[in-house]
Structures are given as structure tokens and as C-alpha cells.
Amino acid sequence: MGANTSQVSDLSDNPSLKSLVGTESISENDPFWNQLISFTFISPTSSGDSKLLEEAVIPLAKILKTGREDLLEELLSNLIHLIVEVPLLDITYSILFEAVTTLLVFFSYQLFHKDILRDGLIYQHIMKGRCLSLTSRLVKTLLYNFIRQEKCPPPATHIFEPKAEGGLLYGLASGVASGLWSVFTLGGAGSKAGIDQEHNPLPLSNQSLLLLLVLANLTDGPDWPNPYRQAITCFRNTQDTSSMSVEQPHTFQINFNSLYTALCEQQRSDQATLLLYTLLHQNANMRTYMLSRTDMDNLVLPILEILYHVEDRNSHHVYMALIILLILTEDDAFNRSIHEVVLKNISWYTERTLTEISLGSLLILVVIRTIQFNMTRTRDKYLHTNCLAALANMSAQFRCLHQYAAQRIISLFALLSKKHNKVLEQATQSLRGRQGDSTALPDYAQDLNVIEEVIRMMLEIINSCLCNSLHHNPNLVYALLYKRELFEQFRTHPSFQDIMQNLDTVIGFFSQRLEQAGSDLSVERVQEVIMKGAQALPTDRLKKFPELKFKYVEEDQPEDFFIPYVWSLVFNSGVGLHWSPHGIELFSMDSG
After folding, report:
1. Is a pLDDT exceeding 50 seen at residue 182?
2. Which H or E run contains 511?
3. How far does CA 310 lie from the centroid of its chain?
4. What angle do CA 347, 348, 350 make, to 5 degrees?
5. pLDDT above 80: residue 507
């Protein structure tokens, strides 16, 4: 190799490359292929060099536009064939990466349109025609590329020696492998600082996941569903030997244990969290499998860590993490089991040393912290709603709440109470100043309604725990008694009277028992009285309310959210890819 060497700037005039993209067909036995493979140029060593390479071959790209639709379909089909047929080895790593990346580039026309595109030549070829029969194999291969997490192999002469029996494919693989190595390790064009070998050592895994998300989020056609979404929706575990009553299109089997492990390990990235969301929401087989695992802490802890570092995450990543929790909390067995998992020394939770805490209590702490962050910073009602829905789903199964978790539940109520009083005072003052003025009130009334909705939900969450598992949660009763004055103002409030009856009953019952126990009681003695009282309180003294259950439902036209989100991930996280930011219309560069 390396008989002909050139500079990047000379590539647009290179005769071999001009022949490659020309209109005349070239036999696979033509000496041209050996000439092409033996040609080399100095590989890019920086993002800037990669951009220069792209600009140098623009004239060649223009020559490539032949207008032959059948050639385009053949190219797409052959790229998919290459991805699904060629085994992932050191010698093939780079050619597989290039094939996946090329498909991503073909779909990137969406970046330059503000509206979601629902048709087009590439769209039709990939959704129908020759490519359709390869749907399940492509989805399975991309998933396995993600699962395997193979690092880019280092350039080694013995790996890339051309072999006579290897044929054109292995010669081509050896020709591109060492050149691409520098792009992987030094960062591709358009990549952000930090995307290098240390932070992105898995280019094929990353690129395969991005392509999978792009395919899964293509819109349905006018009279056909997205086959890639169908494949993601219905694939099964390799250990599942049961026969299906109705054969689903594009189904396949994959090792769920390997996929679960990869999902647990890779939640640092938006795209891995988005894949987890997609599987939990759309694939009932995978959701059932995940919820049956006895090591759910391996999956839940990375999600909680995303929420804990909400200040450092983009809002989409936080939403996905939160919705994943909401979907998980729809399952009662999950809500019970998380209180049985005991964790020690959570290093990333820095607000307080937690030497030992249940996964359930930690989940409550992180969700409450997210609510408090949202109240003081973003004030996003959607975030509030989903946080409270997750807490509500868990509330009937709260068990042995950690002392700090119980305190934070009541502290959040105190914060809401304080905010309620402040907005109520502002609204009252505004009304006094507007006597005789018939124009619309300012936002105080609306703010008050929102806060009262949140307060109502918090009261229902506390009530649900007291009605269903009071005897399991002495720490919550203790925190409730310690801050009993917080609830006084809501006793006669028309929005809260019904739900306050049970809280009044509990507070009154335990207050009386503490008075009977004497004065100057130690903390230990108070807890002892509460423990005994919890066993003695007749359950029929508490009014029954409907069970709190919330289910996640995607918005209408979810593609309006997911397609721009997925492409912002491709734009920011794609390895070795560069698009001019000036032409991007699908999302604002601030959000991308």
C-alpha cells in the first residue's frame, strides 16, 4: 500500500476518484480497484483537517448526482447488506463504521428542513422495496453493535496486510482502517471538545445507536407503518422458546441479558437513555424482562444520577430519565422491590452522607430534589407533573422510608406552603389595587392554581402512604408530627378539606399518645410510641380514597419532539461527521 500519495487539496482532481463516482460501470476484476486501494493520502489529524477533506471532495460529490433512482436503491440495499453480512472483526471494523455512517449521512437531509419530512426517495427506498426484507437483520445488527461496545482497533501492520484470498472487501477494509483511526482518536469534523478516544472510544457502537434511533423515529407512511419501529417493538429474548399466536412482522430474537447489561453501563449518553425509553415504552417483552430483574438497581441508579445532576444535563435528557422512572413506577412489583434493595455509600449523592439507604428512599430523595430545582429555576409544569406522578405511583408501597427521605417529603410540603402564602399575598394585593378595573387579572391567580394543584397532589401522596402502609413508615409519621403546624392553614381550605381529614386523624391520634407518654421525651422514646401506635390505629378510622395511579402516554405527534431530538444527538455526537451549522433548520443551534 501507499504507492501513490497525495495531499487532501489534490483529491478533487484525482483520476481514480473521478472514475469511482463516474457514470461508467467498472468490472470487479478491473485493475482499477487495485489502483484505487493502493492510493493513499495523509490522513486528517484534527477536526479542521477532516473539514478540509470534506470540502475537497465536494466537486466529486456533485459529479455523483446521476439521477438514477435504481442506483440509489441499489446503493442503500448494498450498504445494509454490508452491515448485516460482514462480521465485526478488527479488519472489518472501519468499513462497517463507514457503512453505518454513510446511511446516517443519507438521512441527514432532514437537518435542513424545519418541518418533519414524511416522504422522499431515500425514505421510500429504506421503508419499502429491496431494503424492507433486511429490516429485522439491520435492527438486530445495530443493537448488537451497541451491545458489544467494541473499541476501535489500533492500527497494526499485521492486521491490515492485504491477503490474496481476502478479495476486494478485505482489501478495501485494510485501505480505510488506518486512515480512519486518526479521525476516531482525534475527533471528527464538527465534534465538540472532549469527543476523542478517551471520551468516545466506541465509534461503531455510538454510530450504530444513532442510526437505530433515526430509523426507529421515521414517520409512518400514508399506508404503511415504519418497519424499523415494528422490529424494535416486537423482538424477543433468545431464551424465549414459546411460539407466537400471531406472527409479527420483522420480529427477531436477541440476548436480553446482554442488552440489559449494555443499557445499564451506557446511561451517561442521551442516546442510550433514549434507547432505554424506547424499549421500555414500546417493547412489552423487554419491559417485562427488565421489571423481572433482581438487580434493578444497576439500571435505576444511573437514571437517578442523571436527575441528580440536573444542572449539568440538557432538558431532553432529564425528561427521558424522568419518564423512564414514571414507566417503571407503573408496576406495583417494582414499587415494592425497590424498598428491599439496600444501598451503601452513594458517592454521587453529596448533599448528605448516606451510609445505608434503600433504593426506594433514594429514588424519592432524587425526585423531590428535581421538583425543588424546578421550582426555583426552570418552573416547568411538565417536569413537575411527571415527578409527582412517579411519587404518587409509589406512595401506596412506601416501605421503611429513610429518616432523611421522610424529612424531605415534609420539607417539600413546607416549601410549597411558603410559596402558596407568598403568591396568595401578591394576588390579594393585586386585587386591592385593581378595584373597579374589569381587565384580566395578572398571572397570580394562575400561579396560585398551579401551586394548589401541586399541594393537593403532595397531600394525596402523604395520605396514600398513611392509608396503605402507615405501620411500615414510622419516620414519616415522626416528620409529620414534628411539622404539624404546616398543615393547619389547609384544614379549612375548600380544595383540601377532604384529604386533610385523614392527616388530622393521624396527627390527632399520635399527638394524644405522645401526651399520655409524658413530657421531655427523647427521640428514641417518641419513635417507640409511634411504632406501638401505628399497630394500634384502627384502619377503618381513615377514609378511603381512589388509588393513585398515573400512566405515561406519549403526546400526539411525538415525532415533533423526537425527530429534532434524535438529529440534535447525531449532530453533536456523531463521530467524524460535520454539517455546516448555518444550514440547520430542524432545531435551533442553542438547543442542539
Report:
1. no
2. helix 497-516
3. 14
4. 90
5. yes
